[in-house]
Amino acid sequence: MPELSRRRALTAAAALAAAAGAPAVTAPGASAAEHRDDSPAPFDEVYKGRRIQGRPAAGGGHHHGTGHGTGYAVFVDGVELHVMRNADGSWISVVSHYDPVAAPRAAARAAVDELQGAALLPFPTN
């Protein structure tokens, strides 16, 4: 009988968990997309005459004021731009929903580009 390796043990555990309907067991560092604690860095800058800001949200994952569970808030001229992190790590906003970008700063810049000088209106949360 072959020796039980870590890989075989994890494979067997994952197969049993999948069969039982439980979350699968993965090796540490298996995938950065599966488990992230890599919050984007805060930013505060003027882009094309508009002040854009981003920072970790105080709520830490609640839907009010945190970018739909991301724990990160983005603002254009003081008005919150709702952002969301996709499963692949890209970001989208309510303004440029179909144009994913790499980071919240890029989402803010894309929103400014799309707004073309128009004011960002508050987005109703309920």
Notable characteristics:
126 residues, alpha+beta, protein ne1242 fold, 2 domains, two-stranded antiparallel ribbon, 6 strands, GriE/MELC1_sf, TAT_signal, signal, MelC1
Protein architecture, described:
This protein has 126 residues and is α+β, with helices and mostly antiparallel strands. It has 2 domains: 1-30, no CATH class; 43-115, protein ne1242 domain like (protein ne1242 fold, 2-Layer Sandwich), CATH 3.30.1880.10. The chain is 21% helix and 21% strand. It has 2 helices and 6 strands, in the order αββββββα. It has helices at residues 6-20, 104-115; strands at residues 43-47, 50-56, 72-76, 79-81, 83-85, 91-93. It has a 4-stranded antiparallel sheet, covered by helices on one side. The protein is elongated. Mean pLDDT is 78; it is low at 22-35 and 61-68.
Short summary:
The protein is of the alpha+beta class and 126 residues long. It has helices spanning 6-20, 104-115, and strands spanning 43-47, 50-56, 72-76, 79-81, 83-85, 91-93. The termini are far apart.
The H-level CATH homologous superfamily of the largest domain, spelled out, is protein ne1242 domain like
**Averaging pLDDT over every residue, what do you get?**
78
| Main sheet: strands, sense, barrel | 4 strands, antiparallel
Number of helices: 2
Strand order of the largest sheet: 1-2-3-4
The poorly predicted ranges are 22-35, 61-68
Cα distance, first to last residue?
A: 60 Å
What is the strand tally? Answer: 6
| Morphology | elongated
